Amino acid sequence: MLRNKKILLILLILFSTLLNGENLQSFLSIATFNSQDGPYLETYLSINANTVKLVKSFNKYIGELNVEIEIFNNENIYFKDNYILTSPEFIDSINNNIFFIDQQRIPLKEGNYNLKLKIFDIHNKFEISHTKSIEIEYSSLSISDIQLLEKYSLTKNNNFLEKSGYTLYPYVSNFYPKEIDSITFYFEIYNTTILKKYLINTYIEKFENQEVFSDFDKSLRKTSSLTECNLLSYNISPLPTGNYNLVCEVKDSSNNVLKTKKIFFQRSNNYINQKYAASTFSNFTNSISNDSIIQFIDYLYPISTNDENTYAQNQLKYNDLDKMRNFFFSFWYERNNINPSIAWENYYKEIKKVNKAFKNGIIKGYLTDRGRVYLQYGPPNSRNKIDNASSTYPYEIWHYYKLKNQNDKKFVFVNSDLATNEYKLEYSNVLGEVSNSEWRDRIDQDNNPTFGDDFNNNYINPK
Predict the structure, then answer these.
(1) Residue 1 pLDDT more than 60?
(2) What angle do CA 33, 10, 236 make, to 5 degrees?
(3) Beta strands per DSSP E along 404-455
(4) CATH superfamily placement of domain 1-137
(5) Which residue ranges does the chain devote to CATH 2.60.40.2550?
(6) Residue 391 region, left (φ>0) first, then alpha (ψ -120 to 50), else beta?
(7) Is the Cα dihedral 175, 179, 181, 186 positive or negative?
(8) What integer pLDDT is reported at residue 48 of this predicted model?
(9) CA distances, 420 to each of 161, 219, 338 (Å)
């Protein structure tokens, strides 16, 4: 049965792609635990509010997502649910730079399963899916999955994020940028009654060769119990860029490892020459006004990595001007450590071009689909613009001869709303871009997927 769910709003310090309402963006992480009532699975679904189509509800704006969860093994379905996830209420329909989280707890028996989760934006007709593998085995001495946390607090009122007297806010990414200086995690140990005493050992190891970092390890002596809950944290500010495992072990009194559980994470902590930074930082960023630094950071989204975008947008939400300036400087220093100022100035020239060429009555040019594609990939080798076709909406076809290791790549933009004059990206054969199988239907004004020679020639043989 379809159900409605309200969710808890959480500001997450993690990275992702900001897609400004065009492509639904979400993260999914999972963890399994045991209880007196048996094992259960937790799902942590994080949604980028900027990528949800918001509609007016009284004096606020909300988004509505249809969420389907299915857990299966071979051809057997063990759990299935379908509900409406309603976003928080917003004052405006755009530029809501936050994430909101939905967490579910699902009882499951021991065994191996597959999880498939689908999210459908009811008002934008866009769908995205996630898949995960699940392994549950808690019949003897065991360790739960390791849950990465964004933050935690003592629980005052019961809520769906509560465990062992704490409200645990999940960190749904496994990427830790240089701006995050700690990794916080929670795990449980079960059925240690077979031991009088035991040792919990946690540490960080290199992913490639399992080399243990001596500055990142903790040992805790414990006595036997049915369930042992552990909430720990490491300061990772000195941890270099690389791939790592966070490891939790149970050892007996003879120091033998009895059980081990690991979770993979990535760290980005690029070194910036401090002498150079001290002499150039103030000239580069301090001359930028507070209002401008906010706008300039928002300009970066088309050329940022997935991770840089989410961190940047959440810093804008926190309104921490010092962190904004540090991020802005680091962003351009990593791209040009000889002269980051020149790199920014060149990009800013392109921003001005895009804002002039692609603006419409609703949003600035850099926030449009055409603006984003231009800034991300550069100007096309050819641009075919059709304004007065008899059977189709106005459209544009952009053709790139080569994009990195891809050849003969195209983007099709369609202006189906003449009032706003916004050309939306309906199709591209570039990896990672919109690839809607019904894209031709979006172009035809009569909803009849037949096209004349003009359109076919324009697409197959762009000028």
Answers:
(1) no
(2) 70
(3) 406-414, 424-428
(4) Immunoglobulins (2.60.40.10)
(5) 140-269
(6) alpha
(7) negative
(8) 86
(9) 42, 62, 42
- What is the reported pLDDT for 94? 81
pLDDT at 19 over 50: no
Q: How many CA atoms, within 13 angstroms, populate the side-chain half-sphere of residue 8?
A: 17
pTM as predicted: 0.57
Q: For residue 265, list its beta bridge partners.
A: 244
Instruction: Supply the CATH classification number for the domain 140-269.
Output: 2.60.40.2550
What is the enclosing helix (H) or strand (E) of 190? Answer: strand 182-190
What is the average per-residue pLDDT within 9-20? Answer: 36
Q: Which residue has the higher pLDDT, 240 or 167?
A: 167
Which pairs count as long-range contacts for 301-304, CB under 8 Å and 24+ apart, including other chains? Answer: 301/18, 301/20, 301/372, 302/366, 302/371, 302/372, 302/373, 302/375, 302/376, 303/347, 303/375, 303/376, 304/18, 304/331
pLDDT, mean of residues 362-383? 93
Q: Is 66 exposed, middle or buried (0-12, 13-18, 19+ CB in 10 A)?
A: middle
CATH 2.60.40.10 boundaries in the chain: 1-137
- Both structure tokens of 380: 């096309």
**DSSP state for residue 410 in the 8-state scheme:** E
In the prediction, which pLDDT does 361 show? Answer: 76
Give CA–CA dist 307/179, Å, rounded.
11
Instruction: Please report which confidence band the pLDDT of residue 434 belongs to, taking 50, 70 and 90 as the band edges.
Output: confident
The string of DSSP letters for 371-404 reads HHHHHHH-S-SEEEEES--SSB--EEEEEEEEET
Question: Between β-strands 2-6 and 76-86, what pairing exists: parallel, antiparallel or unpaired?
Answer: parallel
What pLDDT, on a 0 to 100 scale, did the predictor assign at position 330?
A: 78
List the one residue out of 376, 435, 421 whose CA is nearest residue 18: 376
